[in-house]
Specification:
alpha/beta
């Protein structure tokens, strides 16, 4: 019996959401956060009705075996949906690798699904303090949950990267140093900085969005802290 999961949309082919893999991306409905840089705000209401049929998507995956090799569960925040584990089972049964994009909202849910994952993209929204996360997520300040999720990921042995979207309205250069120091101390090996793309109605100058990537001292520090560090568009 297949999972009963609420899906807001699908990207049928991606080469960027799971490094070195050709994947389909499933955008799960629901997110408890209100990050100001979010481009998927329609996915935030967890109970929003959609016409997506999970069984039809599984049929699509059956036909794409040998072309696609992975399925990425993104969002929204996939960990809010209790049926995520069953959906992963459905995908694994078809022979696909699995990946997850998460901000670490529910560490207990993450621990349950980690044995079923091949890779995780872990979004670090801000320096790991309650005040910084409250600002970056529209009010969420349970920073212990984020820390527990990161620790669970580190302990699991599952391949992963941490990444931060550099929204200049909520982050500055010093914040990136603080995030990097926390991640390095925790034992994280792979870190990425992602460019902020202005959301609708935001008039932030491009120069402000690019300042993180133009700072050579920051780039040098990040390469020293994380040998395979990279910027991401």
């Amino acid at each position: 019996m297949s999972a009963k999961i609420n899906v807001g949309g699908v990207e049928t082919f991606s080469t960027v959401d799971f490094p070195e893999h050709m994947a389909a991306v499933v955008f799960l409905q629901g997110c408890p956060w209100g990050c100001p840089f979010c481009h998927n705000t329609s996915l935030q209401p967890i109970d929003a009705e959609t016409d997506f049929v999970w069984e039809k998507f599984l049929g699509f995956l059956e036909k794409r075996r040998g072309i696609l090799d992975a399925v990425v569960f993104s969002g929204g925040e996939p960990l809010v949906q209790n049926s995520l584990e069953e959906a992963l089972d459905d995908v694994i049964a078809l022979g696909y690798k699995t990946a997850l994009h998460t901000g670490g909202y529910r560490p207990e849910a993450l621990r349950r699904v980690l044995p079923k994952l091949d890779w995780v993209g872990f979004d670090v929204k801000a320096p790991l303090t309650a005040d910084a996360y409250r600002k970056a997520t529209g009010g969420y300040d349970k920073i212990d949950n984020v820390r527990q999720s990161l620790n669970a990921l580190l302990e699991s042995g599952v391949d992963f990267e941490c990444r931060t979207t550099c929204d200049p309205r909520i982050l500055n250069i010093e914040d990136i140093y603080a995030i990097a120091d926390s991640l390095k101390k925790a034992g994280v090996k792979t870190y990425r900085l992602q460019r902020y793309r202005q959301v609708e109605g935001d008039a932030t100058p491009d120069s402000e969005c690019e300042k993180f990537f133009a700072d050579k001292a920051l780039e040098k520090y990040l390469h020293e802290s994380f040998p395979d560090f990279a910027f991401r568009s």
